[in-house]
Specification:
386 residues, alpha/beta, Rossmann fold, seven-stranded parallel sheet, six-stranded parallel sheet, 15 helices, 16% strand
């Protein structure tokens, strides 16, 4: 079986590589299209022995005059590779593929990493209207799956397929805290570290957003409220700008300084997450739209977890069982959940252990990889019936 995988970025999407690696190891010929072959994720694919082709399959929004050239490039690559299935993970890629390959009968699988575009009626309609009989969907969380199901798409066209890599053996890769952050930032051992681990995305103007999707300002507001009761709490924001969001990162830092002076530490991007994650006492994921997001990692690490009640978070952050979920864009509720965990540490630890057990099975790449392979086989069987 030959699969042409389309990935829009060379900077991230490690989850796509982890899945592709498992499929490759289990006999699937994976050929990946990336916008660059230098550095980043391209090196991981090449080192693994997978073929990588340079190509940009995204919509040239800022250079619309290049759309014809891009269509021809897509058609040429697909003709050369002759895949059994084209597997895309991103909205802009699947739209471009459907436009460029409107006369092609090759099956296309859109594994949807999050419900963001489906939460906007216009983008949802455009995406579904451009699909053909050779299009299939795999929602990476229940919310995404349910939206497609309620949109009238035939049952045999929709699958639920989580991205793996956080479960199984990966849960044991998080080492016991060595006080790295405490020493690096001269934090007292008596302090409670409440972390937020995420790239910082600038607001999406085309969706009329004024704040980033990950909810950094909500986190800052919540930490400010918590510190009124527990001054020893320190907020730790781990992560840096995604893409061209550097200007927005500076705005977030200024907001933290104005709102919660000396209460928030920004570490920037870290390469030692496996060593420092368990040093955090609580981890918060206040996203405004999300798939499973960073909650998969905090639960895998066995750290008490709080998330907003959006997207795929409730699939793994089961309120009162594996963590707490709170109302979206509500720093007050977020602060209350943090305080509840501080006041009930045994309960928080018990929930984190429950969460670790859940994701260790649910997000084990052995299980999620087999599921996506089953999806491939079912798609091919469906194609044979056409």
């Amino acid at each position: 079986m030959r699969v042409l995988q389309i990935v829009k970025t060379n900077e991230g999407a490690n989850w796509a590589f982890t899945q592709a690696e498992w499929l490759f190891d289990n006999g699937v010929d994976i050929i990946t299209v990336l916008p660059s072959l230098k550095g980043g994720m391209a090196e991981k694919y090449i080192k693994k022995g997978m073929l990588v082709i340079k190509g940009d399959f995204s919509i040239p929004v800022r250079k619309p005059w290049e759309i014809i050239k891009r269509i021809r490039t897509i058609q040429a690559i697909v003709k050369k590779v002759q895949p059994d299935i084209i597997h895309s993970h991103f909205f802009t890629n699947i739209i471009m593929l459907r436009i460029a390959l409107r006369k092609s009968g090759i099956s296309r699988l859109y594994q949807v990493p999050g419900p963001l575009h489906l939460e906007n009626w216009l983008f949802k309609i455009i995406e579904i209207m451009l699909s053909k009989d050779n299009d299939y969907w795999a929602g990476a969380c229940k919310k995404t799956y349910n939206i497609y199901h309620k949109s009238g798409i035939r049952q045999e066209k929709i699958y639920l397929a989580y991205y793996g890599g956080y479960g199984g053996k990966a849960c044991n890769e998080y080492t016991k805290s060595k006080n790295i952050l405490h020493e690096e930032y001269e934090i007292s051992q008596a302090s409670t570290l409440v972390g937020m681990v995420s790239y910082i995305y600038k607001p999406k103007a085309y969706l009329l957003h004024t704040r980033g999707l990950k909810g950094h300002e909500d986190f800052i507001d919540a930490i400010n409220l918590v510190r009124e009761k527990y001054p020893s709490v320190v907020g730790v924001i781990i992560g840096d700008a995604w893409g061209d969001s550097h200007g927005y990162v500076e705005k977030v830092k200024k907001y933290a300084n104005d709102k919660c002076k000396n209460g928030i530490i920004f570490t920037g991007f870290r390469y030692d997450m496996k060593a420092i994650y368990r040093e955090l006492d609580i981890v918060v994921h206040p996203s405004h739209s999300e798939n499973l997001g960073g909650a998969a990692e905090s639960l895998a690490a066995g750290v008490p977890t709080i998330s907003s009640d959006v997207g795929g978070f409730p699939d793994i952050v089961i309120d009162g069982v594996t963590g707490y979920t709170v109302k979206i864009k509500c720093p007050v509720k977020l602060a209350e959940a943090i305080i509840k965990m501080i006041q009930n540490p045994d309960e928080a630890i018990e929930m984190s252990e429950n969460g670790k057990q859940l994701v260790s099975i649910m997000l084990d790449i052995e299980n999620t990889g087999k599921e996506i392979l089953n999806v491939y086989n079912r798609i091919i069987n469906e194609d044979n019936k056409r």
